[in-house]
């Protein structure tokens, strides 16, 4: 378990997190798991449901849900509590934890951008592109090659106790349109087999990045999700449906490292991971001066942690750390505890709303359950 948050931010609670939720799924199907399970989920799974579904809507954090939906809405009226995301609370790290039952320390998919010395380049993990370009980073998928892990689906199917499906743009049950998400889940829940279904959709995160987390268009998107989940549940039988998110969101401004040449000169390369969880590779001769300069420039906007502090406090989670973890995190990690992020240069994405920092709005996600017996 990671350390607790101070008054400026919230550290992840791995014992009551989406990792715990995933481990409850593995336990339920008799598969191998390595972390504490989530007790409310274990209690729900005492009933032998034929179908267990986790629907994850990207960015639908607890605060976002409460802002855009009334208390008597379908999703909020079925909320049983909350979960913690992982650190950093971002899609790359969080969905990989959901799909593996591992902490980011174990799987190594820490954020959008990571540096791989074999390639001599910073790679955007999911699209496998060189940082800030559409150019492929390698002829193979770098993260899948260097940061391999066994999925929840593989582990479940190896037990022979159930089939496992991923409903997403890139899943085993592949969809291309939003409407297909619900139709595909419904179809899989009509199969005679016992199965586990993980369904992912990239909203409201995708639009919140562009317009901010409180825009009226986000209200429309979340209301539509609420209505479609309610309609789906009317047609389900012998199914436990869980709705949650990978992380929350908050409106964000940005500092640019290029605006601070004295700091920029201390760096080996642009920062990696995320704008609100920025990891710095510092030149050897500047390792001692860097933290003082950083704090002088940015004050209390970020929590600056050395590599040793990050590892010692299990901020990326417990378990057997991936052997690459120390090199992936750089020398210093700057974690946002305010409304600001850190970009390297003006061409970097300046999302109006973002995530990956140490605030409750980013870290807390809903635990919503619908039981159809």
Quick take:
This protein is of the alpha/beta class. 31% of the residues lie in helices and 22% in strands. Strand 3 and strand 4 (121-124) form a beta hairpin.
Protein architecture, described:
It comes from Hungatella effluvii. GO terms for molecular function: hydrolase activity. InterPro entries: Alkaline_phosphatase_core_sf, Phosphodiest/P_Trfase. It holds the Pfam family Phosphodiest. This is Type I phosphodiesterase/nucleotide pyrophosphatase. The chain is an alpha/beta fold and 373 residues long. The chain has 2 domains: 14-250 and 359-372, 3-Layer(aba) Sandwich (Alkaline Phosphatase, subunit A), CATH 3.40.720; 253-354, 2-Layer Sandwich (Gyrase A, domain 2), CATH 3.30.1360. The protein contains 16 helices and 18 strands. It has helices spanning 18-28, 39-44, 62-68, 74-77, 91-98, 104-107, 142-146, 152-159, 178-188, 205-211, 216-234, 261-264, 290-298, 307-312, 325-328, 360-363; strands at residues 51-57, 79-84, 113-116, 121-124, 129-130, 163-168, 173-174, 195-201, 239-244, 250-251, 253-256, 272-274, 277-280, 302-306, 332-336, 340-343, 353-354, 364-372. It has a 7-stranded mixed β-sheet, sandwiched between helices. It has a 4-stranded antiparallel β-sheet with strand order 12-13-15-14. β4 and β5 form a beta hairpin. The chain is globular, with a radius of gyration of 20 Å. Mean pLDDT is 95; it is low at 1-9.
């Amino acid at each position: 378990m990671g350390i607790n948050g101070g008054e400026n931010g919230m550290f992840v609670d791995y014992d009551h997190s989406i990792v715990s939720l995933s481990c409850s799924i593995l336990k339920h199907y008799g598969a191998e798991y390595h972390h504490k399970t989530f007790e409310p989920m274990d209690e729900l799974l005492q009933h032998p449901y034929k179908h267990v579904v986790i629907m994850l809507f990207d960015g639908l954090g607890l605060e976002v849900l409460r802002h855009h939906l009334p208390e008597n809405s379908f999703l909020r009226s079925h909320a049983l509590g909350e979960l913690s995301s992982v650190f950093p609370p971002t899609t790359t790290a969080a969905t990989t934890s959901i799909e593996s039952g591992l902490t980011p320390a174990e799987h190594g998919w820490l954020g959008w951008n990571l540096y791989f010395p074999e390639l001599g380049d910073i790679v955007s993990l999911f699209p496998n592109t060189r940082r800030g370009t559409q150019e492929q980073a390698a002829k193979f998928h770098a993260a899948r090659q260097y940061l391999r892990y066994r999925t929840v689906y593989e582990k479940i199917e190896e037990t022979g106790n159930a089939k496992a499906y991923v409903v997403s743009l890139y899943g085993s049950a592949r969809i291309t349109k939003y409407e297909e998400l619900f139709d595909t889940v419904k179809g899989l829940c009509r199969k005679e087999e016992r199965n586990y279904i993980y369904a992912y959709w990239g909203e409201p995160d995708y639009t919140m990045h562009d317009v901010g987390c409180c825009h009226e268009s986000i209200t429309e998107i979340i209301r539509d999700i609420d209505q479609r989940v309610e309609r789906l549940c009317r047609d389900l039988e012998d199914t436990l449906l869980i709705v949650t998110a990978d992380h929350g969101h908050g409106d964000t401004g940005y500092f640019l490292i290029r605006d601070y040449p004295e700091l920029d000169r201390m760096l080996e390369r642009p920062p990696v991971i995320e704008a609100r969880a920025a990891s710095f590779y510092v030149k050897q001769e500047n390792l001692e001066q860097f933290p003082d300069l950083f704090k002088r420039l940015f004050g209390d906007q970020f929590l600056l942690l050395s590599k040793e502090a990050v590892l010692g406090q299990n901020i990326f989670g417990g378990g057997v750390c991936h052997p690459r973890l120390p090199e992936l995190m750089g020398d210093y990690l700057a974690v946002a505890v305010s409304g600001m992020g850190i970009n390297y240069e003006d061409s970097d994405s300046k999302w109006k709303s973002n995530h990956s920092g140490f605030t409750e709005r980013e870290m807390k996600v809903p635990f919503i359950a619908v039981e159809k017996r």
